[in-house]
Amino acid sequence: MKLMTSILATISVLFLLVSCGSTDDKLAKPDQGKQLIVAFKSDATKDIVENYLSTLNLEVVKPITKDGTLLVQASENVDMDAILNQLNSSNLVRYAEPNYPMKKSN
Prior knowledge:
Strand content: 15-25%
Mean pLDDT: 78
Radius of gyration: 21 Å
Oligomer: single chain
Distance between the termini: 32 Å
Number of helices: 3
Structural class: alpha+beta
CATH class of the domain at 30-98: Alpha Beta
């Protein structure tokens, strides 16, 4: 009976460790440090947004909302602080912020 309890306890712990590890992998991707969340004003057309992002060497990863909020990716050799300053000072942008990695709390 003790052996069976030990085996079940070990399997449970291993299951929890494996499932927690896979969750962390999905939440914090290595390229996330160069991703930004950018919300554009409602009068910014798709063409204007795409042209503006290309001048900053940014490309759209995916839309986040239907109201003009996008997840964008910066190239490797970009100063993220400078890009954020440019975005946040633009008349086209409501706000821009880093896409901070999410980590599971204990």
